[in-house]
Design goal:
The longest helix is centred in the C-terminal third of the chain and has 21 residues. Helices cover about 25% and strands about 30% of the residues. Strands 1, 2, 5, 6, 7, 8 and 19 form a seven-stranded mixed sheet that branches. Strands 10-17-11-12-13 form a five-stranded parallel sheet, covered by helices on one side. It has a three-stranded antiparallel sheet with strand order 14-15-16. The two termini are about 20 Å apart. It has two domains: about 180 residues, FAD/NAD(P)-binding domain (3-Layer(bba) Sandwich), CATH 3.50.50; about 120 residues, FAD/NAD(P)-binding domain, CATH 3.50.50. By secondary structure, the chain is of the alpha/beta class. The structure holds NADPH dihydro-nicotinamide-adenine-dinucleotide phosphate. The site of NADPH dihydro-nicotinamide-adenine-dinucleotide phosphate has 15 residues, from helix 5.
């Protein structure tokens, strides 16, 4: 059976950065790209806040660059999905979708997280054309325009206040009669004059044309519906970490994120490391994921050196 020193699962900035470092440390990493090659960045438009790209870069172009850089140093990038990991013995026995099995002396989990969407057909139609799940990534495109944010948690409040600094008017669409966010975040929202909180409202449909979003039709809990003209529609109803593969095998927090030893990428299983959004409920930024991918590769290298 094939045996690899370092198996990396996931192909976002965390996975590819881990691959670059692992490959340069002669660990001959094998990287499985997973269901969404390139990860969440491939679903955004322009990335303007990743250091080193003064003119910005498209998410797809950045992921192509990272993939090429990882391959240049010898990473074996494979299309495919890891189906299961046996964590009870080392090297770990890993099953790949399709039937292959490999043995891995160390594993870096970089499977990311996925933003939750409402599930409306109109939301899907305008994804990347005015519908976004990342205000930090895309808010800048709606400067001086009107936008809506859906959600009542800390993320929604944070994104609404961020957007309020750029946009003319921000509508916060909240399904309950109260915000779930912390008191401090609530106060920031209520003290920001260009945020209008629409309590007990749901999204019935995202409206638009060939150029993108033009409005949203909201439905009040009493059944009344009306339209609001907007050009950006932001989801902030939570993320779910992609940890199905390791559920029951690694320690997860109450939201399902992989728990790592503070300041490291070490998980509850020796020899398995985590990087990127799969273990980061707070920051969820590409640059942070890339940095944590570097940490995971360095941790894996040290682990392998100590366990020859
Ligand atoms: P949360 O799960 O806390 O909040 C999700 C929000 O989205 C809730 O208001 C929820 O409504 C709403 N929602 C969920 N599904 C739907 C739906 N289908 N339609 C309409 N609304 C919906 O997620 P967050 O991402 O806000 O936060 C995740 C964690 O990260 C929290 O622990 C939070 O405190 C933390 N965080 C902390 C920050 C900080 O401290 N600066 C910043 C950002 C996040 P309802 O209330 O009705 O369930």
């Amino acid at each position: 059976m094939e045996q690899v020193k370092c198996l990396i699962i996931g192909s976002g900035p965390a996975g590819f950065t881990a691959a670059i470092y692992a490959a340069r440390a002669s660990l001959s990493p094998v990287l499985y790209e997973g269901i969404e090659p390139g990860g969440q960045l491939t679903t955004t438009t322009e990335i303007e806040n990743f250091p080193g790209y003064p003119e910005g870069i498209s998410g797809n172009a950045m992921m192509d660059d990272l993939r090429r850089q990882a391959k240049r140093f010898g990473t074996d990038v494979r299309t495919g999905i890891v189906a299961s990991i046996d964590t009870t013995q080392r090297p770990f026995r890993v099953a790949i979708d399709g039937g292959d099995e490999i043995l891995a002396e160390s594993i870096i989990i970089a499977t990311g997280a996925s933003a939750k969407y409402l599930g409306l057909p109109s939301e899907l139609r305008f994804r990347g054309m005015g519908v976004s799940a990342c205000a930090t990534c895309d808010g800048f495109f709606y400067r001086k325009q009107d936008v809506a944010v859906v959600g009542g948690g800390d993320t929604a409040c944070e994104e609404a206040t961020y957007l309020a600094s750029l946009c003319r008017q921000v509508y916060l669409i909240v399904r309950k009669p109260f915000l779930r966010a912390s008191k401090a975040m609530q106060e920031r929202v209520f003290n920001t004059p260009n945020i209008k909180v629409l309590f007990e409202h749901n999204t019935a449909e995202v409206l638009g044309d060939d150029d993108g979003v033009t409005g949203v039709r909201v439905r009040k809990n009493d059944g009344e519906e009306y339209e609001i003209p907007i050009s950006g529609f932001f989801l902030a109803i939570g993320h779910h970490p992609n940890t199905e593969l390791v559920a029951g095998k690694l320690a997860l927090d109450e939201q399902g994120y992989i728990v790592t030893v503070a300041g490291t990428s070490r998980t509850s299983c020796e020899g398995i490391f985590a990087a990127g959004d799969v273990c980061d409920p707070h920051y969820r930024q590409a640059i942070v994921a890339a940095g944590s991918g570097c940490i995971a590769a360095l941790d894996a290298e040290r682990f392998l050196a100590a366990n020859k």
